[in-house]
Specification:
Blueprint (H helix, E strand, L loop, with lengths): L2 E2 L1 H9 L7 H13 L1 H9 L7 H27 L36 H12 L25 E2 H15 L29 H16 L14 H10 L1 E5 L6 E7 L24 H24 L6 H18 L3 E2 L4 E2 L13
Antiparallel strand pairs: 1-2, 3-4, 5-6
Length: 352
Amino acid sequence: MLKIDPNRLAAVQAAENAEQLWPSVQAAIELEHATIPPYLTALFSIKQGYNVEAATIIGSVVREEMLHMAIASNLMNAIGGRPDIDNPRFIPAYPGPLPMGVRSSLTVGLSKLTRRLAYDVFMDIEEPENPIEVPVVPSLGAAKTADTPEYATIGAFYAAIKQKLIDVGPAVIAGDPSRQVADARWYPATELFPILSLPDALKAIDVIVEQGEGTSTSPVDGDGQVAHYYRFGELVYGRRLVRVPEPPGWAYAGAPVPLDPAGVWDLLDDAKAADYPSDSSARVLVEAFNSAYTNLLRCLQLTFDGAPGKLDMALSVMVEMQLTAQKLVCTPVPGTGKYAAPTFEYTGGGLR
């Protein structure tokens, strides 16, 4: 379970107005983004045509993490702030802790997909404070259980923001409505919508929390979709989560979720562009990937700076990143027995 420094929670609780909430909401944007490179690296490591169920699970989580980043950015604009995305400091150092002062032994890196990675890292990232104990049928090992919280949790952090918004009152939503981003072509209006009122803001936060953690009584969100924590559990335990008649009413007992190691590229862990010779194919491809990634951050900055139509451009850049990554991960790294991996580094080139 991710644990954040209680001072983060205290800063939210001590805020007296919207402006004093800006640093906390910016931290939330950074955290939502920080999960995307590790998840994408695992997704890109799957060879095309292999491990289709696993790729579908991870891809669905990545899509929703992008949604959560967009929701948090809309919230920042709604309370009169400005998301800070096009900035080298926006990208965390991998391997390392996630943003928002996470106090935990959890180290998040950029690695190929394994069941162990999904259990040790991805489920830890998404774990709610009180996860439902879901049995595994047939048994593949005990389901993950929660640690005793020693610090504030991410769920508690979002709950504190909700309460502070209520405390400040409806006037907290004073941002320019034209800076709100919503496009039903990419996300349904029930998930990504303009935050124009206090109820809108509270509903938006609920979308983030429930998609990641489920609810206190169910592993699915309000739309009936399996929450991220339990979706990664499907990867770990090799079975889809389904309803069963016995308590707690759910079990990893559905269709198999195979994970064939032969269908995963053996990537260089936690790679940097400098790890590849300057004249190598790997270096050319990784620099092209990083250029596209930087362009993505810049497109998102423009999108949330009052040009919502730039979301189309951002998603086009995502396709460019994917195509480059597909070439990158099947490129051998001489002398290592490994394959090249995306590095998610900010570059000086690209859009301005």
